[in-house]
Amino acid sequence: MAPTPKPIDPRGPRFNQAVLALGLLGGFLFDWRPVVPFFAVVLFLGAAFGPRYGPFLRLYAELIKPRLSPAKALEDPRPPRFAAAVGVAFLGGASLAFLAGAPGWAWGLALVVAALAGLSAATGLCVGCEIWLLFARRRGVQLAG
Q: pTM for the complete prediction?
């Protein structure tokens, strides 16, 4: 069985999600399409390589977190990484839809990500994380945190 990963401060992913939601919403409002592949890369870096490589996760860790009191609770990093991977898939699909000349589909996919990221940032309810947890519990995965 694989060892459980080191728990993380949940405020980092929530900050990342807030930036993502606002960035995608702004991109939609101003029809600035490069924001979609940009955030696909941002999410990919954090999901694939960890928080040190996600630009906004790193910004949180280095500039914001030191100014805050310690987190009241830590969480397993795997659920937010899974949620980010799902976001990468949707934003990758949106980027391809732009290239295929289907901006309606592209913005639709991007706005799903923006809505779910905004929900998570504002309330702490991460739909992708809950999906990961559902399958993890069924498989008997040991959770960190």
A: 0.92
